[in-house]
From TrEMBL:
Biological-process GO terms, alphabetical: regulation of DNA-templated transcription; regulation of growth
This protein's GO CC annotations: nucleus
Matches recorded under Pfam families: bHLH_ILI
Protein name stated in the entry: BHLH domain-containing protein
Record organism: Lactuca virosa
PROSITE patterns associated with the record: BHLH, PROKAR_LIPOPROTEIN
Source lineage: Eukaryota, Viridiplantae, Streptophyta, Embryophyta, Tracheophyta
Molecular functions (GO terms): protein dimerization activity
Gene3D superfamilies registered for this protein in UniProt: Helix-loop-helix DNA-binding domain
SUPFAM superfamilies, per database record: HLH, helix-loop-helix DNA-binding domain
Subcellular location(s) of the protein: Nucleus
All copies of domain BHLH, residue ranges: 1-56
Entry keyword set: Growth regulation, Nucleus, Transcription, Transcription regulation
Length: 90
């Protein structure tokens, strides 16, 4: 009887894990993730997720650098940058 419970518990956990991985996969923009009919390993989905987060971080850093450059150039042109900074922090 305990073997059946153990198996049932394991199956439930496997189903929950598969459900979570499927939800995570659906959030990824990559082409392999858009094929929800194809079962992809959890490790592959996690790898893609990590790569996607790293790319978002790089893009955010680049945007921050570009914004700083723009604000610096605006200061040199006499634009009131403090108003823009306050607006962007909201």
């Amino acid at each position: 009887m305990s073997t059946r419970r153990t198996r049932a518990t394991r199956n439930k956990k496997d189903d929950e894990l598969h459900d979570l991985v499927s939800k995570l996969q659906a959030l990824l923009p990559s082409s392999s993730s858009s094929c929800n009919n194809t079962r992809v390993s959890a490790s592959k989905v996690l790898e893609e997720t990590c790569n996607y987060i790293k790319s978002l971080r790089r893009k955010g850093d680049k945007l921050g650098e570009r914004l700083s450059e723009l604000l610096d150039s605006m200061e040199n042109n006499g634009v009131d940058v403090d108003i823009l900074r306050d607006f962007l922090q909201q």
